[in-house]
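Lab notebook, page 48
Experiment: co-folding of the full assembly
Goal: obtain a model of how the components sit together before planning crosslinking
Operator: M.T.
Materials (sequences as entered):
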Amino acid sequence: MLSQLRPAVVLLLLFSALTGLVYPLAITAIAQAALSYSANGSLIAGKDGAPIGSALIGQNFASDKYFHGRPSATQAQDPAHPDDSSKTIDAPYNAANSTGSNLGPTSQKLVDRVKADIDARRAAGWSGPIPADAVTTSASGLDPEISPQTALAQVPAVAKARGLSEEKLRALVAAQTDGRALGLIGEPRVNVLRLNLALDALAPGGA
Amino acid sequence: MTFVGWSQIAIVLALVLAAAVPLSRLVARIYAGEDDVLARVALPVERVFYRLAGVEEAREQSWLAYAMAMLAFSIVGFLSLYALQRLQAYLPLNPQKFDNVPSDLAFNTSISFITNTNWQNYGGETTMSHLTQMLGLTVHNFLSAATGLAMAFALVRAFARSSATTVGNFWVDVTRITLRLLLPLSIVIALVMVALGVPQTLAGSVDATTLEGIKQTISIGPMASQEAIKELGTNGGGFMNANSAHPFENPNAWTDMLEIWALLLIPVASVIAFGRAVGDLRQGRAILATMAILLIVGVGAVYWAESAGNPILAALGLDPAGGNLEGKELRFGDAMSALFATATSSTSTGAVNTMHDSLTPLGGLVPMFNLLAGCIWPGGVGAGLYGFLVVVVIAVFVAGLMVGRTPEYLGKKIESREMKLAMFAVLIYPLSVLGFTAASVMLQTGLDSLNNTGPHGLSEILYAYASANANNGSAFAGLNGDTPWFNTTLGIVMLAGRFAYVIPVLALAGGLAAKKKAPPSAGTFPTTGPLFVGLLIGVVVILYLLQYFPALALGPIVEHFLMLGGKTF
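Observation: model returned without errors.
Model output:
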């Protein structure tokens, strides 16, 4: 095996340089030069030019003047215990620490959480079966999209908070709904951040 | 289940086959060292590499020298990757100022990446510097995949050659595979990914001020270059904790299709190339047909279970039409989540676009079974082919027993030594997986790591060891694996799953290569056609399903019935 040591060390160094530095740096250079929007995270700039978020990453909406995304299971370090990484607090849409709930189908925690969320939706006036995406957490905790049904279910509440007609908002949701490409690829969905940006454009003064 | 969903699945699988056929020619040329356009581009670089490394291109190795070279390469890779993680705080390209990785986690991650497992006990965006991601993890994504395919080349040569003393040169195989196959394909896929929305930047994070005026820190990095080889090399270690469910790693349905396509591509092409290498395309086709049947049945089962959803939640008023969306991203839907989960566990990839821990019991059973069988339909890059050829050897032996003839495969007699080595390789699996699972459920430290209790807790532990053993790397991720117990034992299981398997396989290759190739006669059992495919499926069921049935019954199967009865834990 000792005779194999030289090729092992030398080839590891050479391949490290090639696939670990030259390759990613060359891809970075090409991507930054030719595809800078997506290479830098599909950022959306606000009025002052500073980013208000990424078109791909969901953000947490709490105000009733905005449409809300899916529940998110992401966590953050508990500020009360900054040195103990096992102590965390709920921090929805923490884009620096992606995670799902990892709760299994027979988890009582899952059932309790979904039940509480369904009750809250019912209290907000939702009727009929609740769309599944409205009360389930996504795999990343950063899902930027909701189903058209979940967006439409929020129309009455947002319309009331904004003083807009429900009809106008339903048309807005329809305009912001992405269908399947070629009728086949992807799922029907609404990007929540884009929807809320369009909402602000329609009636300024959201937050 | 919908027509659209099945169409999405069919389109991806058809695209895999359409690309794998031409790619199999390239793989066969690399196997044989034949000249082509890529070879002419790569050759000057290869020659420099050989000269500096002191490798004689034309000099082949015995199986033992081949195995020693592979081990030396893996050990050096382990040490350097461990050192890189332990020193990352002092090294450049660490924009988020991460600390050095703790020793037990660095041990686990190093083993994980040299064995092509890519198990994530770390959260990418909270643990690893950009330098570690690039110079450590990306490099081993290439090299562990190239090593896997080199092992398969050695075994294929054993069947293709007659009375040979050598099985190839490990260094030459690894160099050619990396430079002519993995790197060119990765460059193309990485650029397509950026065009489709995957970031590629050296920045560490972006601070945004949301519409509601709250600060959101968004982790980012050189992701596309790693994402490409992560799928192509069936590695699966994500840049981010959420892996291919993260909207940056997998922003839309197109990238999702591309990723599934990329992770199936080389394994499928390798099986077709096997047929080319042994001079009989039908041999490759029989194996591929078997793999395809096992894969598609699995996809169907997961898709059915996931779109049926969770009756406990439906009873609360949830619309069952959405299927089981807990732990899934809306943009992928049930069908493409089912295909991803099945494909990633049928290969040794382990990337996930859905959280397997939150799959329905039967939806989770399929990936778990795929792992328990060692991820061999179509398997990891190279690892799938040599893994499945071991099953073929056992199947041929079983057929030989039934008809009372000396079993042979491709003109090579399968005798006592071959069977002992094949069985040794196959028996490592249950010993390691069931042994450590049993130990973990008896230890408080094992149970403390669980995120779910009841039968699902057993599933979390069983899945972890099955994943480590099969060098897959996907997880029922609720299990907290970042503890000294799991970091260490999963590391050991990964080592056993790779090396205690591949060394008997190389020994098998050495013995087979030395045998004379006998011409087929009237009494030769045909190893092509539907009868042989049926036999292979039978052997898979007997070897794996029955072997693990008791464990599966206590985990996902009993959980399925408890779920139907509305029982929670």
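Interpretation: The two ends of chain B are 29 Å apart (CA to CA).
Next step: discuss with group before ordering constructs.
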